[in-house]
Amino acid sequence: MLERRHQSRHEAVPILLEIGGTSFVAAIWSRGGALVESYGGPLTPGSLFAVTGLGLADEGRVGPVDIRARVARAEGEGRLAVQFLGIDRRAHAFFEEVLGSNPLDIDNPFKPPAPRFPPPPRPRLSLVR
C-alpha cells in the first residue's frame, strides 16, 4: 500500500481536541490530523467542522485555536480519523512546542515560537555637525 502521510505520527503525548464544545482525546496525531477516541457525536466521513481548542490530555484543559478539519473516516468503537485542512498560528505554535522545537511553556502553551535567529544589530547613527 502506498504511504501518503506527509507528517509523522506522535503517540507518546496524548492531546485534547475540542469539537462542538466537547473535548476528546487523540492519542495518535500529527500536524496533519488526529485519531479521535470515543467520539459519539453527529460527524460522519466527509463532514467539515472546526476544532476550537487544543491541549495536553494530562492537563485536562484546552486553549483556543481555529483548525479547519474534515472527517477522513470513522472506525469502530467511536474513533474518527480527522484531517486538518488549515491551522491557525496558535495551533501551529502548540504543535511546535509539544513536538519539542521549543520548550513547553506550562503557563502559556500557545505562546508563539521564539525566533530561530536573533535580529540583526541596529546600525549606530551619529550626528554630524
Protein topology:
Elements lengths: L14 E5 L2 E9 L2 E4 L11 E9 L6 E13 L3 E9 L1 H10 L31
Brief description of this entry?
With 129 residues, this protein is mainly β. 8% of the residues lie in helices and 38% in strands.
Q: What is the CA-based Rg, rounded?
A: 19 Å
Query: Number of helix segments?
Result: 1
Strand order of the largest sheet: 1-2-3-6-5-4
Question: Helix coverage percent of residues?
Answer: under 10%
Average pLDDT across residues? 80
Which geometry do the CA atoms define?
A: elongated
Category by helix and strand content: mainly beta
**What's the end-to-end separation, in Å?**
75 Å
Tell me the strand percentage band. 35-45%
Strand and helix order: EEEEEEH
Q: Biggest sheet: strands, sense, closure?
A: 6 strands, antiparallel, barrel
Unreliable segments (pLDDT under 50, ≥5 consecutive)? 102-112
Number of strands: 6
Characterization of the model:
With 129 residues, the protein is mainly beta. The chain contains one helix and six strands, in the order E-E-E-E-E-E-H. It has a six-stranded antiparallel β-barrel. The model is unreliable at 102-112 (pLDDT under 50).
List the main descriptive attributes of the protein structure presented here.
mainly beta; 1 helix; 38% strand
